[in-house]
Every structure is written in C-alpha cells, then in structure tokens.
Amino acid sequence: MLTALSNRRRFADLSPQEVLALAISSEEDDARIYRSYAQRLRASYPSTAAVFDGMAAEEDSHRTRLIALHQKRFGDVIPLIRREHVAGFYARRPVWLAANLSLEAIRNEASAMEAQAAAFYTRAAGATADAETRKLLGDLAAAEAGHEVAAGGLMETHLGADAREVEDASAKRQFILTWVQPGLAGLMDGSVSTLAPIFATAFATQNTWTTFLVGLAASVGAGISMGFTEAAHDDGVLSGRGSPWKRGFASGIMTTLGGLGHALPYLIPDFWTATSIAVVVVFIELWAIAWIQNRYMETPFIRAALQVVLGGVLVFAAGVLIGGG
Q1: pLDDT at residue 251 tops 70
Q2: pLDDT in tens, 106-128
Q3: Angstrom distance (rounded) from CA 303 to CA 316
Q4: Mean pLDDT score of the chain, rounded to an integer?
Q5: Among residues 140, 151, 181, 119, which one has the least CA distance to residue 54?
Q6: How many whole angstroms separate alpha carbon 201 and alpha carbon 129?
Q7: Confidence class of residue 2 from pLDDT cuts 50, 70 and 90?
Q8: CB-hemisphere CA count at 13 Å for 170?
Q9: Domains in the chain, ordered, with CATH?
Q10: Over the stretch 145-175, which tens digit does the pLDDT of each residue have?
Q11: Other CB atoms closer than 10 Å to residue 80's CB: what's the count?
C-alpha cells in the first residue's frame, strides 16, 4: 500500500502538458460514468437517462476541445496519466456501486462530480506560481463550472416537474417493494411469531438464561427461514419487486431483530425485571410496525394499530397461558 502511494505523482509536480492530459482522461472517464448511469436508468427512468446522455455529450465536447488545445500546444502524443496516478486528485465512485444508489442519489452524485472537479482545478490554480499553468488550470475550472451549468439546463430540458414527479414516485414505489415491504413482513413475523415461544418458556421455567437462549434460537432461525424464503420465491423479474437478495436480506435481518427485541431483556438475571422490560419492548415493536404501515403502506394508523396490537396481544396471551399452565 505504501509503495503504491509513493509511486503516485504529486499534482504540483505535473507539467502543463500532463495537467492537460489528466484533464482529457478525466473528461473521458466522466463521460463513461454518465453513459453507465443512463444505461442503468433508461428502462425505468427515461427522462433522467436523457439527462445523463446529454451530460455525457457535454463531456465529449469539452474533451474534444481539450485535445485540440493539446495538439496546438504540445502535439498529437498525449501522455498517459489518469486520476489514480496523481496523489490527492479527486476520485470517482466505482460505477458498479451505482447499482445500489437510489435515483436521487445518482442525480446528486452527478452534481457532486461536476462541483468537485471545478473546485479542485480552482484550488490547484491558486496554488501554482507558474502563470501559464495558472491560466490552464483556471480554464479547466471554468470548463467544469460550465459543465455544472449545462447539467442544470439539461435537467430543466429533459426532467421537468411532471417527469421528475413521475420518476420520483416510481423510485419510491421500488424502494417500498424492495426494502420496506419485505422488511415489514419480517419485522411482523419476528416480533409476533416469537412471542409465544419466548413468553411460554419464560413463565414455564422462570429462568432468564434459558428464555434468552430460546428467544435467540427462535429469532435467528426465523430470520434465516424468512430471508431464504423471500429470496427464493420471487426473482423479481416479473413482479418488479427488485433484487431477491436485497429483499431476502431486508426480510431476514428485520425478522431476527423483531425477535431479539424482546429476547435481549432476558439477559437480566431478575425474572420479573426482565419480563417487565420485555413486555414494554413488545409494545414498542408493535407500535413501530403500525407506524411503518401507516407511513409507507398508507394504512390508516388506527386500523394498523388495532390489527397489529390485537394480533400481538393474542399471541402474547397464548404464550403466557401455555407457559403458566
């Protein structure tokens, strides 16, 4: 690692030709990133994809002008120098990580890319004592700022209020289908289905450690089962619910957390203290489920609360009766 860092050039040590070559390669990389964004978004968000197509074309046009400037000043042979060759130069998020970014996050990423490049060139121009290099860096800063302005114009052209509202609604729906819905199902299953075995064990044995072990086993087992079931039963292609692994992860984790919430209090040695805290945690979990249903699934809060709390109370009562008997 240290060797790799030591082999990188300092930006201050680059010649004007190398700085220009670095700008050319950076413009080329950014154009590729924008085209990757456009390709990923085209099917679901065509208006935003058109924005990124336009931004890629802007990067291409600036790269063409930079190449022409290089040919005029230094000739046709452009030195091979890229961002990763220069210490302290701004980095770009790997393109494959865009698969995990939301629509709004990708838009913000593009805006940050342009602002970051402009700010870097501005700071670099202020730090150099060479007049010719200062002018070159200032021109690059202006070019990047121009990209940002152009990006704003493209947003207005291709992504008006109506198109943006439609795409934002689609993104919200996808978020709910991929993360909220399976996570909510897992939280409900983990919170409710583990009530009976945990409280039955608690009242049957009045042994907090045994109760905790039963609760831990029930929570982890339910989480694994729910996660694999969610991931296996629907690949998301026809239903449009998104990646099965994302849904399985959301469902499995929330199922486990739902059960652990009222199992963890039994790490407290005193039985009645642990049970009292566990009961409070159960009601917090149930009200949280009702809030999520109201917030994301648009279920009236009173109806959601009655359904969830009533079901939870019945399962809790069953566990107490079985264990106490």
Answers
A1: yes
A2: 776 777 777 777 777 787 677 66
A3: 20
A4: 79
A5: 151
A6: 77
A7: very low
A8: 15
A9: 2-159 (1.20.1260.10), 172-324 (no CATH)
A10: 765 555 555 555 555 555 556 556 566 666 7
A11: 9
CA distance 278 to 290: 19
pLDDT at 130: 65
**Residue 9 β-bridge partners:** 86
Report yes or no: 26 and 83 within 8 Å, Cβ to Cβ.
yes
Instruction: Quote the pTM value.
Output: 0.54
Lowest mean pLDDT among 2-11, 21-30, 139-148: 2-11
Please check the confidence at residue 54 and state whether its pLDDT lies above 70.
Answer: yes
Evaluate if residue 221 carries a pLDDT over 70.
yes
Which two three-digit tokens encode residue 274?
């642990």
Three-state SS for the chain is CHHHHHCCEEHHHCCHHHHHHHHHHHHHHHHHHHHHHHHHHCCCCHHHHHHHHHHHHHHHHHHHHHHHHHHHHHCCCCCCCCHHHEECCCCCCCHHHHHHCCHHHHHHHHHHHHHHHHHHHHHHHHHCCCHHHHHHHHHHHHHHHHHHHHHHHHHHHHCCHHHHHHHHHHHHHHHHHHHHHHHHHHHHHHHHHCHHHHHHHHHHHCCHHHHHHHHHHHHHHHHHHHHHHHHHHCCCCCCCCCCHHHHHHHHHHHHHHHHHHCCHHHHCCCHHHHHHHHHHHHHHHHHHHHHHHHHHCCCCHHHHHHHHHHHHHHHHHHHHHHHHC
How is residue 197 written in tokens?
């075995």
218, 153 in Cβ contact below 8 A?
Answer: no
Total residues found in the chain within this entry: 325
d(CA 292, CA 184): 7
Q: Is 254:193 a contact under the CB 8 Å cutoff? A: no
